[in-house]
Write a structure and sequence with these properties.
Blueprint lengths: L22 E5 L8 H13 L5 E5 L5 H5 L11 H5 L5 H4 L1 E2 L5 E4 L8 H4 L9 H7 L7 E5 L6 H9 L2 E7 L8 H15 L4 E10 L4 H14 L3 E7 L2 H5 L7 H4 L4 H27 L1
Parallel strand pairs: 1-5, 1-6, 2-4, 2-5, 6-7, 7-8
Antiparallel strand pairs: 3-4
Helix pairs in contact: 1-12, 6-7
Length: 284
Amino acid sequence: MYRGEMFHVERSTWNITERTLGKIIAIANQKGGVGKTTTAINLGASLAANDLRVLLVDSDPQGNATTGVGIAKGDGKTTLYQVLLDEQDIESAITKTDFEGLDIIPSDRNLVAVNLELVDRENRESKLREKLATVRDRYHFILIDCPPALDLLTLNAMVAADSILIPIQCEFFALEGVSQLLDTIERVRDGFGSTIKIEGVLLTMYDERMNLTRQVEQDLREFFEQSVFQTVIPRSIRLAEAPSFGKPILSYDLRSRGAESYIQLAKEILAHEQSAGQATQSLG
């Protein structure tokens, strides 16, 4: 699918400069089922729809981001597993999707073995950072879809990333385990000389009709304050259906609330980049 053919997304008016090239965002939460992969796919497509170049890195052995953009597992493709183990170079793993501007490094179930096979290697926590360093200047954004665990794969993603986006489902136990994630981020900063920041907390599976949803939102905004995105992702059947067709929601149903919400999320992130760039210029 191409940006100009089946739909039109108004191009961002923000100035995307060389400063934005290669920004790496890890999408992580060790709690499963919170919308990490859905966000990785659809944020990537929404940024690409703004005429930006985006690389999606599927760092989850389940490989759902891979199939979610229409890439079949197997059939001899180079995957992230082979890249991290130095069996193949990263260039051979980059695969174009049908969504213009969006590429992916695919994965499959073999990736789970990385947690064992890298454990005795030197600089094991920095392997992904080393690999992405060779291609990051080709993309405006690199999004890493992390597994639902604080394992070596997630640690690699955090060490490689400039920022972390945390999807949180609007449910009773929303904050469960988040403190452990925040502690891991601090350890990455202290242990690896990282300057990783919180890109934002994203409220997912949002249903404004439920009192619980509104209460959870209030609690999260009080806890994280300005780190919570204004954009929320609604509970949506269309969002849930799209991956089974191997399409981002912008390709599957552009007029859905899910598509609109991810377009708004992309604009919010770009607006933040613009304001951060202006602040840097004024300090300079």
